[in-house]
Amino acid sequence: MSRTVARRALVATLAVVCALVVPAAPAGAAVPAPTVQAAILALVPVPRATSGTADPPPSADPGPTSSGTGPSWSGDVALVDVPVPEVVVRRAPDGTPTAYVLPDTLGVRWVVDTRPVADVGTRDDGAWRLDASPAGAPVVVVAVAEAGHRLVREDGTAASAVAVLDLRRAVAAVRPRVVDGDGTADAFVVPDVAGLVVADDAGTVLAPGSRHVVTGYVDHEAVVVLTLSAAPGHRLEVDGVPVEAIPGEGAPWLVELRFAGTVAVEPVAPTFTPGQGAAGTVTVPLVEGVEYRVGDEVTGPGVHAATGMVAVSARALDGYVLVGDAAWSHTFAAPGAPADASAVDAGPAATAGGGARVRGAAGPAAAAAGDDTAPVAAPAPLEPSRAAIDPVTLLVGGLVLGGLLLLRGRRDQVV
Question: Is residue 216 part of a domain?
Answer without folding.
Answer: yes
